[in-house]
Amino acid sequence: DGGITQSPKYLFRKEGQNVTLSCEQNLNHDAMYWYRQDPGQGLRLIYYSQIVNDFQKGDIAEGYSVSREKKESFPLTVTSAQKNPTAFYLCASKQASNTYEQYFGPGTRLTVT
Amino acid sequence: AQSVTQPDIHITVSEGASLELRCNYSYGATPYLFWYVQSPGQGLQLLLKYFSGDTLVQGIKGFEAEFKRSQSSFNLRKPSVHWSDAAEYFCAVILTGGGNKLTFGTGTQLKVEL
């Protein structure tokens, strides 16, 4: 079955450590997105990539980094510079520049203590 | 600034009752409109979308939504709610020509009483 995989489901880290969240899709979608979700704030865009080897900052990119070396993969690194990293992180993808529906993965809950 | 507003943070309805979740947007141009549903600890599932044409759109799970340009609204409705509809619902908008950026409302948490 085609879909978006995010791993792990739950992730725990100590403050000051970088951590990388995985996002893989086998939908052959061109664009991929990372969102952060906090209670009562909806989803906020961190980074997005419309093609391989290219990505753009979203609304809250500070303290995060990404790479897009393969079409199916878009890992997100939460660095120690991110002041409040504890959140639910959602990855999404969509087919091409002339389509608009984004499809979401199951999410990763990151807890930093 | 462009924004999407879901004025109701929490809504409680009885099973079998009708449901309407409100969504308003503030954009000058015609946006593309979406409703997503999220079960606890899960990703988002697309319920329905509006791009153009008939302003009443049908979605999955018996949901529908109506686009009203004069009111800048895209309210989600269901005639008879089931206990399994309890979830969080997000309205989202893409502004045409705006780089395909999806902007979300803050969500409405639906509780269904048996």
- Strand element count of chain B: 12
Shape of chain A: globular
Span of the ends, CA to CA of chain A = 36 Å
Structural class of chain B: mainly beta
Tell me what you see in this structure.
The complex is a heterodimer of chains A (113) and B (114). Chain A contains no helices and eleven strands. Chain A is an all-beta fold. In chain A, strands 2, 4, 5, 6, 9, 10 and 11 form a seven-stranded mixed β-sheet that branches. A four-stranded antiparallel β-sheet of chain A has the order 1-3-8-7, with no helix packed on it. Chain A is globular. Helices cover 0% and strands 54% of the residues of chain B. Chain B has no helices and twelve strands. Chain B has strands at 3-5, 10-14, 19-21, 24-26, 31-38, 44-50, 56-58, 64-68, 73-78, 87-95, 102-104, 108-113. In chain B, the strands form three sheets. In chain B, strands 2, 5, 6, 10, 11 and 12 form a six-stranded mixed β-sheet that branches. Chain B has a four-stranded antiparallel β-sheet with strand order 3-9-8-7, with no helix packed on it. In chain B, strands 1-4 form a two-stranded antiparallel sheet. The interface between A and B is medium-sized, with 25 and 21 residues.
Secondary-structure map:
The complex is a heterodimer of chains A (113) and B (114).
Chain A: E1 4-7, E2 10-13, E3 19-25, E4 31-37, E5 43-51, E6 54-57, E7 64-66, E8 76-78, E9 87-94, E10 103-104, E11 108-112
Parallel strand pairs in A: 2-11
Antiparallel strand pairs in A: 1-3, 3-8, 4-5, 4-9, 5-6, 7-8, 9-10, 9-11
Chain B: E1 3-5, E2 10-14, E3 19-21, E4 24-26, E5 31-38, E6 44-50, E7 56-58, E8 64-68, E9 73-78, E10 87-95, E11 102-104, E12 108-113
Parallel strand pairs in B: 2-12
Antiparallel strand pairs in B: 1-4, 3-9, 5-6, 5-10, 7-8, 8-9, 10-11, 10-12
